[in-house]
Amino acid sequence: xxxxxxxxxxxxxxxxxxxxxxxxxxxxxxxxxxxxxxxxxxxxxxxxxxxxxxxxxxxxxxxxxxxxxxxxxxxxxxxxxxxxxxxxxxxxxxxxxxxxxxxxxxxxxxxxxxxxxxxxxxxxxxxxxxxxxxxxxxxxxxxxxxxxxxxxxxxxxxxxxxxxxxxxxxxxxxxxxxxxxxxxxxxxxxxxxxxxxxxxxxxxxxxxxxxxxxxxxxxxxxxxxxxxxxxxxxxxxxxxxxxxxxxxxxxxxxxxxxxxxxxxxxxxxxxxxxxxxxxxxxxxxxxxxxxxxxxxxxxxxxxxxxxxxxxxxxxxxxxxxxxxxxxxxxxxxxxxxxxxxxxxxxxxxxxxxxxxxxxxxxxxxxxxxxxxxxxxxxxxxxxxxxxxxxxxxxxxxxxxxxxxxxxxxxxxxxxxxxxxxxxxxxxxxxxxxxxxxxxxxxxxxxxxxxxxxxxxxxxxxxxxxxxxxxxxxxxxxxxxxxxxxxxxxxxxxxxxxxxxxxxxxxxxx
Length: 509
Prior knowledge:
The chain has 509 residues and is an alpha+beta fold. The chain is built from 14 helices and five strands. The protein has helices at 2-15, 46-62, 86-92, 95-111, 120-135, 140-157, 170-186, 189-210, 214-302, 312-340, 357-367, 384-404, 442-453, 481-504; strands at residues 370-377, 409-417, 420-427, 457-462, 468-475. It has a five-stranded mixed β-sheet, covered by helices on one side.
């Protein structure tokens, strides 16, 4: 390998041999052509490792040791609380706090084992042992140092000499184990190792100075190692469980998002398909119905000119036919616009209302149906949706009378009452020839849909004299003007949509 390096250097030297006297010093064999590389990290020494350990210890157990870190309650969806009743969960969330308080009571009672509550030494031992345990609820790192200070204080005043677990008392022994376990459950594994080493160092110094207490020190080392290992394992498992739960929640959220997108895509596809079907229906309506209605209007307009000196009644009849054909074409164009449109909006043209009933009745009379119109009650302006539905119901009922009871007499009654509007359309039996009419039944169905949408009531059936009767009640609530304007706009749009649907299905029965 060295020979290869020398050969490479020789090649570079030969390449620079003709550089001349102006060549840069140091550009000869062995000179590095580029900048010097940054020196890599040197080998780690024992001193460096020690300094790193001291920095970690200072950050874990000294930095912010007395900072407030309250013990949080269990989460409402914690695995331990999932099977509990909902009323119990709110209290069960504080189980960790209850366990800490119970441990504090236990070590306090252990401190009183050599005396009564009147014994000052026993009382002091119990309180000194219970204090650090309770302190873990708010300041766990500070609780560890307080526990160490209490242990040292008991050694100094001789309070640990009688217990047989020197350099701790019985209560102090258990209290220190509980404190370290609490800190390990809420901290990193490194903190548990640091606390174990500090406890072992304290015990070794005190036992070495006193010359006895080896058994208690060995017991503390073993029990603390077991409790800290268990706490670290439980903490790690709990952290892993939370991470898995978070991942599962994230996956579930993504799956829900994908499902929502798929649902939106499916809805968009269905909407597009429906729009295509509506466009096809509109095309068929335009090609068939609009063509024939245009022919009817043109022929009705031209018919009087084909007869020499036609009577006025005939001219009026043809004029009426043409007006009805033109009106039907106008309605048909509006319906075709609705069917073709992706998002239907209310038309700008005014819709028929109850004020147009006179014109409707006059038009029907000219066709040949005898109709009487009666209006009772205080006439007032009703919501546009109610007025449009009432007008269409009367129009449909009179159309049925023309179709199924030619030559009959009809009566239309409109009653303005306190709670709404009442309608009654009745016709007598037919006196002329009744022809078969295709699409029977759609008109009554359309009436029922209108009434149901407005929350009203309808009855339709034969009358006693062989005719037919339709009775309708449409409720009208008293609303503020601003609310009425918004509600009526939405209501009339829905009613017009139903009206257009019924027209496409073949018209009235």
